[in-house]
């Protein structure tokens, strides 16, 4: 042992206790990530070779592999609809003519759609069916799982009532029938003829802007001078006729003759109602003694205005899907609608409820809309004024 100047002992320089300990490498845990080498550590020539030759070759190889792979099989229409629900949004309340026809369709169209989905009828009444139409146009899924039944007047509402949609963009499936509409008053009302409408003040029930009852009532007042007051806001024609029975209003315009036959033929036979006038491009053969509005127009301009307002009568029970649904599902829905119109079970069911079946194809509706939207602007403006409240 060595002794220092201060008297402390210390080990010799070569003593084992003074040797430096050898540093052992740090053990890394199994899950510890090793730091990557800095990019600058890659030789410059190697990096240049990789960028110039290896990377393009690798990219080309991956592209060839992708091209050579078979595409994934697209889902068929049948596969899409199998096990799904298809909803028919009905623009009126339960019990009216549009509801009657829409539910008739709902009972039978499902078996003609590939995959045979379940079809559900859902009432979305409001604003003369404009609420349902706007739902279809703006908010409903555009995948073919929702279709709609709404007022025939929705076809011209964008032109003459400033409705915020373009009827030409809807996916039209067809119409279950063509029709004429009538004005109906209760037997106790003083309004029994068209001339009575011009001479005696009276009230008529309405549903909302753009609905047939409102349009035809306002047409009578503004174009022909009927002394009519419109009481609007009823959810559907069934509600309006109940108001007529209770004496709240004199009657209601815009009821389809087919609805009258299906729902109220007992009133006709018992002479509980009056039919002062009918609305249609053609006169209804069943009621030849009821004057047709087209026979009451005066002059070429008024005739053109009336034809524009009544154009929807040619597609009395329209059915459509939202804009922009896949083309294969559009074709399938149109084919299903047309097959349903010829289905013996559907036709037998229609006879039971006295529903007239006189179908109009999607193609014919599209042609009609093209003609309507080509109407001169001055006639459109005057027709719009004629049905303004």
Question: How would you sum up this structure, described in words?
Answer:
It is a single chain. The protein is of the alpha/beta class and 389 residues long. It folds into 2 domains: 78-178 and 314-380, D-Maltodextrin-Binding Protein, domain 2 (3-Layer(aba) Sandwich); 181-312, 3-Layer(aba) Sandwich (D-Maltodextrin-Binding Protein, domain 2), CATH 3.40.190.10. The chain has 15 helices and 14 strands. It has helices at residues 44-68, 77-81, 97-106, 130-139, 157-160, 194-199, 212-224, 237-246, 257-263, 265-270, 299-309, 327-341, 344-352, 362-372, 377-386; strands at 2-3, 9-10, 85-90, 118-123, 146-149, 171-175, 181-186, 202-205, 228-231, 251-256, 273-274, 278-279, 318-321, 360-361. Mean pLDDT is 86; it is low at 1-9, 29-33 and 35-42.
Topology:
Blueprint: E1 2-3, E2 9-10, H1 44-68, H2 77-81, E3 85-90, H3 97-106, E4 118-123, H4 130-139, E5 146-149, H5 157-160, E6 171-175, E7 181-186, H6 194-199, E8 202-205, H7 212-224, E9 228-231, H8 237-246, E10 251-256, H9 257-263, H10 265-270, E11 273-274, E12 278-279, H11 299-309, E13 318-321, H12 327-341, H13 344-352, E14 360-361, H14 362-372, H15 377-386
Helix pairs in contact: 11-15
CATH topology (level 3) name of the largest domain:
D-Maltodextrin-Binding Protein, domain 2
- CATH H-level superfamily title of the largest domain: Bordetella uptake gene, domain 1
Task: Give the quaternary arrangement of the chains.
Answer: single chain
| Beta fraction | 5-15%
Query: How would you spell out the order of helices and strands?
Result: EEHHEHEHEHEEHEHEHEHHEEHEHHEHH
From the N-terminal CA to the C-terminal CA, the straight-line distance is 122 Å
State the secondary-structure class: alpha/beta
Instruction: Specify the helix fraction band.
Output: 25-40%
Give the number of helices: 15
Q: Using only CA atoms, what is the Rg?
A: 38 Å
Note the overall shape: globular
Q: Extract low-pLDDT stretches.
A: 1-9, 29-33, 35-42
Indicate the CATH architecture of the largest domain.
3-Layer(aba) Sandwich
Most strands sheet: 6 strands, mixed
Estimate nothing, just give the exact number of structural domains.
Answer: 2
In the sheet with the most strands, the strands line up as: 4-3-5-13-6-14
How many DSSP-defined strands? 14
- Mean pLDDT across all residues, rounded? 86
């Amino acid at each position: 042992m060595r002794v220092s100047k201060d008297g402390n002992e210390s080990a010799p320089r070569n003593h084992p206790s003074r040797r430096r300990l050898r540093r052992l490498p740090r053990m890394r845990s199994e899950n510890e990530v090793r730091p990557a080498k800095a990019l600058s550590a890659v030789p410059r020539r190697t990096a240049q070779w990789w960028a110039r030759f290896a990377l393009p070759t690798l990219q080309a190889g991956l592209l060839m592999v992708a091209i050579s792979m078979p595409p994934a099989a697209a889902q068929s229409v049948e596969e899409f609809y199998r096990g799904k629900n298809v909803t028919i949004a009905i623009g009126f309340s339960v019990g009216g003519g549009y509801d009657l026809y829409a539910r008739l369709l709902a009972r039978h169209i499902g078996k003609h759609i590939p995959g045979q989905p379940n079809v559900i009828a859902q009432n979305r009444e409001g604003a003369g069916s404009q609420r349902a139409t706007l739902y279809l146009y703006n908010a409903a899924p555009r995948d073919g799982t929702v279709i709609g039944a709404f007022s025939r007047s929705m076809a011209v509402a964008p032109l003459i009532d400033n409705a915020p949609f373009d009827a030409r963009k809807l996916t039209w499936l067809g119409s279950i029938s063509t029709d004429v509409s009538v004005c109906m008053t209760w037997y106790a009302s003083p309004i029994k003829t068209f001339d009575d409408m011009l001479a005696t003040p009276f009230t008529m029930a309405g549903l909302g802007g753009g609905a047939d009852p409102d349009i035809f009532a306002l047409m009578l007042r503004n174009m022909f001078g009927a002394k009519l007051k419109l009481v609007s806001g009823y959810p559907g024609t069934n509600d309006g006729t109940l108001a007529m029975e209770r004496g709240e209003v004199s009657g209601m315009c815009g009821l389809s003759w087919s609805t009258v036959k299906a729902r109220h033929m007992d009133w006709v036979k018992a002479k509980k109602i009056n039919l002062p006038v009918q609305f249609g491009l053609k006169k209804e053969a069943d009621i030849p003694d009821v004057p047709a509005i087209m026979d009451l127009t005066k002059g070429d301009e008024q005739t053109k205005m009336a034809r524009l307002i009544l154009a929807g009568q040619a597609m009395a029970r329209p059915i459509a899907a939202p804009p922009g649904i896949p083309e294969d599902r559009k074709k399938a829905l149109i084919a299903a609608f047309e097959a349903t119109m010829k289905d013996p079970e559907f036709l037998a069911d229609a006879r039971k409820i006295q529903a007239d079946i006189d179908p109009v194809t999607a193609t014919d509706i599209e042609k009609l809309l093209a003609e309507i939207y080509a109407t001169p602007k001055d006639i459109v403006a005057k027709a719009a004024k004629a049905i303004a409240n």
